[in-house]
Amino acid sequence: MSRPDALPARLAGLGLALCLLLPQAAQAGRSCEEQTITPATFGKAMAAAEQLQQKLDASGGDVAVIGRVGQDLSRFKLRYTHVGIAYRQPEGRWRVAHLLNDCGSASSDLWYEGLGNFFLDDMYSFESVALLPPPALAARLRERLQAPPRLRELHTPQYSLLAYPFATRYENSNTWVLETLAASASQEARIANREQAQMWLKLNGYAPSELKLGPLTRLGGRMFKANVAFDDHPNEMRYADRIQTVTVDSVMNFLQARKEGWQVLEIPAP
Asked: Which of 52, 64, 92, 261 has the most CB atoms within 10 Å of its CB?
């Protein structure tokens, strides 16, 4: 099932998780209330989308992984917060397939939007990144994008902003993209579920990002936020305040380490 272009109150990506969980980031957070988009913000979003589209058009390809900056995560040595998969439609228009959380709830769905909408989500910065796959992988990824039921094979509606990368109880936005890439990259066997995708990622050396979150932060997030859970993390890790999750940076590091020919285009804010 696809979701129409819209601007609902919604949460997406790790950046908002940290905003909700860490007192230091609370002032930079965003609420679940509908917000009026100012002309200045709209202009910046459209300019960022135009810049990204120009880079994608110039690449000569028709599929890419794209990332945005929703929050300032520099204290965690992280830059981008949310990824989606951009694909060019036959008439030349670019769309983005990505997973979004229904704001304030513990559920998610897959959305298909234009590039402009991708930047209309209360950005911290309008810089972006495009990861261009090697041709063979691009063809397999494009084939998967053309079959929505196959995209949903790797979708778990139960959502947690800090979902553990090697469990299937919950899923976050970046996890869905990473597992979709794994399913497209696997040539040994067809990946048809999340367990298989995670096994492939383990065998191929994927390393998640690890965040140091204190016990009060963990307990506070679980008690007061429906879309934050830690019970999928191994006890020995969460009780040691070691929270591992899929971040955009970890996805980028994994793809580049495979040396398959991925191109990385970092695009400054307009």
From this structure: 52
Run of H or E including 85:
strand 82-88
Does residue 3 lie in a domain region?
no
> Which tokens sit at 169?
């109880």
User: What b/e string do you get for 33-65 counting C-beta neighbours within 10 Å, with b at 16 or more?
Assistant: eeeeeeeebeebbbebbebbbebbeebebbbbb
Per-residue pLDDT tens, the chain, 270 aa: give them.
Answer: 345 433 333 444 444 334 334 333 322 223 455 667 789 989 999 999 999 999 999 999 999 999 999 988 887 788 999 999 999 999 999 999 999 988 778 899 999 999 999 998 878 999 999 999 999 999 999 999 988 888 999 999 999 989 999 999 999 999 999 999 999 999 888 999 999 999 999 999 999 999 877 543 443 334 346 687 889 999 988 788 888 999 999 999 999 999 999 999 999 999
Domain span at residue 212 reads 10-267
The secondary structure of 177-193 as a DSSP string is HHHHHHHHH--SS---S
What is the dihedral angle through the alpha carbons of 14, 254, 183, 8, rounded to the nearest 10 degrees?
20
On whether the CB atoms of residues 127 and 266 are closer than 8 A, the answer is yes
97 domain-assigned: yes
CATH of the domain at 164: 3.90.1720.10
In angstroms, rounded to a whole number, what is the distance separating the alpha carbons of residues 169 and 160? 9
Tokens 């947690």 locate to 160
